[in-house]
Design goal:
α1 packs across α2 and α2 crosses α4. The chain contains 4 helices and 2 strands, in the order βααβαα. By secondary structure, the protein is mainly alpha-helical. The protein has one domain. It has a two-stranded antiparallel sheet with strand order 1-2.
Length: about 90
């Protein structure tokens, strides 16, 4: 018997990654490592929602649930960027 779990992923990963990339221009001092840290912090604050196909999940969500996801993403991304920025080494002046 052959099992294939390659399609299984956390629904929020793509959403968070895309949003971190989109917002990165507002944080020009952030390195690639710092942006990866932002994604990790944000994902760790969201519930795990594993799916095989993103479209399947979107089909079953109500408009209210979609809105709640958008609000959650905004909240965790703001937190994550601030969290990483606060802990970044400060350059000497």
């Amino acid at each position: 018997m052959n099992f294939n779990f390659e399609q299984v992923h956390n629904y929020y990963e793509r959403l968070v990654f895309e949003e971190v990339v989109r917002r990165a221009q507002a944080f020009p001092d952030f390195s690639n490592d710092m942006l990866a840290d932002v994604a990790c912090v944000a994902l760790n604050r969201l519930p795990a929602r594993y799916v095989r196909h993103d479209v399947d999940m979107m089909f079953y969500l109500t408009e209210q649930e979609r809105h709640a996801i958008e609000l959650s993403l905004e909240e965790v991304l703001q937190f994550a960027f601030g969290f990483v920025q606060e802990r970044a080494p400060k350059s000497p002046r």
